[in-house]
UniProtKB/TrEMBL annotation:
Alphabetized GO MF terms: oxidoreductase activity
SUPFAM superfamilies found in the cross-reference section: NAD(P)-binding Rossmann-fold domains
Family per record: Belongs to the short-chain dehydrogenases/reductases (SDR) family.
Keywords per UniProt: NADP, Oxidoreductase
PANTHER family tied to this protein: SHORT CHAIN DEHYDROGENASE, SHORT-CHAIN DEHYDROGENASE_REDUCTASE FAMILY PROTEIN
The protein's name in its UniProt record: Uncharacterized protein
Oxidoreductase as UniProt keyword: yes
Keyword Cell membrane included in the entry's annotation: no
Length: 296
């Protein structure tokens, strides 16, 4: 099995930490990023004990692209996992523009900055160097629910970016993988942010209030196992385990991969629901210039 060199953002907790550990256990090298790498190293000595290293990175900083470009060259990185992010849970009406902008800055622009940082080096590797970009999406983009407007918007942008990016850099030998995550038992539900304005009176007792309460009560009982999720992502990158010969399993290049039974159900339900669009063929195609104006 080939050895890969990972750069993992947001690795001081949750999925990012598990990804670092599982990649190291699989024999790969890892540079794990954190806003405070000293604290991260103290809290999680297993990363360095397994041979990994920490790197200070705040993806909202303007110099993110340059810092990423420097570390990928120095460490010979060929796998970027854009895991860093957080979520706001609350109604769109209650979410301030500054809060919405910060959500997009971390989850979407942070992902973009890191990708721009790795691309020059990844291009130089060619297909033989197996350069891979893994972006973390969310099932809320395909099956959204109340109270996730800001978070869903940020992740929907990452999903659209990933699909278009795959077509841009695929011919250059760079692989892009988009992971649609379900609800996993990480610290996410313990650390989500609520709008500073609180919950507006119009939403008290309604769907937004109910969703936030449901997710708060779900914390610690989420169905997804982050350790297994990390294993699957490492296998998707290096082509081992359940992802071995993935093209022969019917996934093709596997751009979009749902993880979690809830995510798989959501993706398949979305595909089935989109079948309804076929009923709109006459209406949809009636607006082209080649339509007969007398009958259109």
């Amino acid at each position: 099995m080939a050895s890969y060199s990972f750069l993992i953002t947001g690795a001081s907790s949750g999925l990012g930490l598990q990804l670092a550990v599982e990649a190291l256990k699989a024999g790969h090298s890892v540079v794990a990023t954190a806003r405070n790498p000293t604290t991260a190293a103290q809290n999680h000595p297993e990363v360095e004990e397994l041979g990994g290293s920490w790197f200070q990175l705040d993806v909202t900083h303007a110099n993110t692209k340059e810092r990423v470009a420097e570390v990928v060259r120095e460490k010979g990185i060929n796998v970027l996992i854009n895991n860093g992010g957080y979520g706001i849970l609350g109604s769109l009406e209650d979410t301030g523009e500054d809060e919405f902008a910060q959500q997009m800055d971390v989850n979407t622009f942070g992902t973009m900055r890191c990708i721009k940082g790795v691309l020059p080096h990844f291009r130089s590797l060619g297909k033989e160097g197996s350069p891979t970009i893994v972006n973390i999406g969310s099932i809320v983009c395909l099956t959204p629910f109340p109270a996730t407007t800001a978070y869903a918007a940020s992740k929907a942008a990452v999903e659209g970016l990933s699909e278009a990016l795959a077509m841009e850099v695929g011919p250059l030998g760079i692989r892009v993988v988009l992971i649609d995550f379900g609800i996993f038992r990480t610290s996410f539900l313990h650390s989500f942010t609520k709008p500073k304005a609180g919950l507006g009176e119009a939403y008290v007792g309604g769907s937004v209030d109910g969703t936030v309460s449901f997710l708060e009560n779900l914390a610690g009982k989420q169905p997804g196992n982050p350790i297994l999720a990390a294993k699957r992502i490492v296998e998707i990158v290096d082509g081992t385990g359940l992802a071995k010969d993935i093209t022969e399993q019917g996934y093709g290049p596997a751009l979009r991969v749902p993880l979690g039974s809830d995510s798989f159900r959501g993706v398949t339900a979305k595909v089935e629901a989109m079948e309804e669009v076929k009923k709109l063929e006459t209406l949809s195609c009636s607006t082209d210039f080649d339509q007969d104006a007398t009958t259109a």
